[in-house]
């Protein structure tokens, strides 16, 4: 057909790919193991490697000795003449072998060589991981976090502050800042450190710049297992600037500021999107545009990725070539440009992966190695995991590597299959489609929706990405010497980014543009299997696949509705209590009828709260308790109440933070009841009747809350949480909200006093006992600040922890989990296990998790 091009049959070199994948999996698991275990594993792999190499060397020696012993030129000539006379071909190829020829490898030998190559890649990276884990375990910052003490620390800001999407503690915006700590001072002793620290702070913490050295203090909390940071802290003081940073960081920030200044005259969307697209600076990105980019599957444009590095490297390479520079000059200039861009855009996982790939590509150019994309990708993965093992658990790194792998493996194969079609249109569709195909199962773990507009949206904006990137980099460079020229370059880039913003807004407005999908591992596995089926069909019969697309789309629309009846989907029969998976927040459901329930808190997301209640079959709420007004407990109320009647909503007597308290009152007008004294009652009827009692905060906590400023401390509001004691189907439940140790001790005194004056266990309310419970909802998402004596008094058999996956708070804290282990309680957490449901009665409690 016209416009078609000769396309070579793709034959990628896949020899390094299994070893790189195995390295990734081993390091991913090793990060949550003890350092000693990882070192033992690396030693075992080293022994296997040495034995394998020894066996391979012995095999080579035997073959060499056999060849030397059998070297007889005269016998070889006789065999040749005999073969020529008889025309025998039974051993023809073997008879024609000369002294230097080798026999073809058997499948067993090939498999052995592949296993040996994989072990050779895994063993050193695992050893490095074990050493890094051991070093971090012995770091003084790790020890301070385990003890929960306050320390003074000094270190370098390793990345730009990131504003959190929502501040659950009220007041001004809260920022996440990563610090590479150099020294810590605790109990009058200063010690060197090399650990990573995550700081949550407000005010001046948001003005910091990567590369600066700062000093501050805060109470340390252990980070979650598998995280790169050793500790997290909520800063009690602002940062003190010690050093403005080395000149590369200062120069990079000067360029970024110049780019922001050059974009000042652009329309709102372009003004925020151009710096975001070029260097990942999202500080001025409009929130509505951010949401529309996500809905249209274009969020990756706001994170610097391989495309940015590839565009910049190609421009520099060809510019030096146009100036008659040699290959070495082109290579050197490209590597320097890539290194400078890494500093400019910050060393994020995707940037590091793309930068190393670019350097390897330059090496490939110098050595005349073409078509080595897959080996380069595998080498990049192994090298980066060796340098920073914690990249194995980075979603950004995973998405970047998978997208690149899709481009290297799928796009050439599709071009070959569709070689009779015009190459340009096929390539334009294949690139975004391949990226979405391989990354979709991972993105499901982050957001359980499948975008139906992502591929066409990416196809429409593809032509605008390169001009915007080049114009943005030019504007940043020109800002140093020619501000007017920088503004002109930014104006050219603004045209491209304005088009991208327009496509994002239109894609987000498409009705049913995204398809709800089951979340967690179940949804990811389902989507991966369906994707593999479609891709395999497309690879075999491209024309006939079109006829299969309608039933596949229909299956996508129907299958999510079937998921509740599959394992891990719907509620198990006879469920009593459920902890919803609503991200970093809490929502507890106590069953009060076949389709009725009592809800304790609603989490931070209305969609997640509604989805959880739908999955449990709850169509009516008899009672709602908002333990306190932090957003991670109250913001999901709108979704929880939708279409589920008009239940009374009991709330904390301290209406702080004011915005969230006002929202709750607005959602339940005339039905909001502040808990000023102990309130109890029943909900539901028959076998599922729930007896409940609310324990309000102490008078001192209420007075302190009422006297708080307009920006109260998070711990103060936590301490005015209302505690629920309930019994359903004989199962006793205690939901503790976010009470801190001070309020936990006060609660312990109250319950102990009531139990002491009661006959037996003591009846402290409508059928609720002041004594041991079966299930407890752990306070404050499993933070390290727990009063062990309270939990020993309650003595729960099951502890439910509502916590978000990959949260930056360090929840649940190892200290809290260890405490539960000491008192004999089994802990279940929503970040790794999804929704948790408790079934049965008090004598046969069972726990079913979604994952």
Automatic annotation (TrEMBL):
<feature type="transmembrane region" description="Helical">
    <location>
        <begin position="520"/>
        <end position="539"/>
    </location>
</feature>
<dbReference type="Pfam" id="PF00753">
    <property type="entry name" value="Lactamase_B"/>
</dbReference>
<feature type="transmembrane region" description="Helical">
    <location>
        <begin position="108"/>
        <end position="131"/>
    </location>
</feature>
<feature type="compositionally biased region" description="Basic residues">
    <location>
        <begin position="93"/>
        <end position="103"/>
    </location>
</feature>
<feature type="transmembrane region" description="Helical">
    <location>
        <begin position="374"/>
        <end position="391"/>
    </location>
</feature>
<keyword id="KW-0472">Membrane</keyword>
<feature type="transmembrane region" description="Helical">
    <location>
        <begin position="397"/>
        <end position="415"/>
    </location>
</feature>
<feature type="transmembrane region" description="Helical">
    <location>
        <begin position="546"/>
        <end position="563"/>
    </location>
</feature>
<dbReference type="Pfam" id="PF03772">
    <property type="entry name" value="Competence"/>
</dbReference>
<feature type="transmembrane region" description="Helical">
    <location>
        <begin position="488"/>
        <end position="508"/>
    </location>
</feature>
<keyword id="KW-0812">Transmembrane</keyword>
<dbReference type="InterPro" id="IPR052159">
    <property type="entry name" value="Competence_DNA_uptake"/>
</dbReference>
<keyword id="KW-1133">Transmembrane helix</keyword>
<feature type="transmembrane region" description="Helical">
    <location>
        <begin position="458"/>
        <end position="481"/>
    </location>
</feature>
<dbReference type="InterPro" id="IPR036866">
    <property type="entry name" value="RibonucZ/Hydroxyglut_hydro"/>
</dbReference>
<dbReference type="InterPro" id="IPR001279">
    <property type="entry name" value="Metallo-B-lactamas"/>
</dbReference>
<feature type="domain" description="Metallo-beta-lactamase">
    <location>
        <begin position="584"/>
        <end position="768"/>
    </location>
</feature>
<dbReference type="InterPro" id="IPR004477">
    <property type="entry name" value="ComEC_N"/>
</dbReference>
<feature type="region of interest" description="Disordered">
    <location>
        <begin position="77"/>
        <end position="103"/>
    </location>
</feature>
<feature type="transmembrane region" description="Helical">
    <location>
        <begin position="26"/>
        <end position="53"/>
    </location>
</feature>
<feature type="transmembrane region" description="Helical">
    <location>
        <begin position="329"/>
        <end position="345"/>
    </location>
</feature>
<feature type="transmembrane region" description="Helical">
    <location>
        <begin position="351"/>
        <end position="367"/>
    </location>
</feature>
<feature type="transmembrane region" description="Helical">
    <location>
        <begin position="427"/>
        <end position="446"/>
    </location>
</feature>
<protein>
    <submittedName>
        <fullName>ComEC/Rec2 family competence protein</fullName>
    </submittedName>
</protein>
<keyword id="KW-1003">Cell membrane</keyword>
<feature type="transmembrane region" description="Helical">
    <location>
        <begin position="298"/>
        <end position="322"/>
    </location>
</feature>
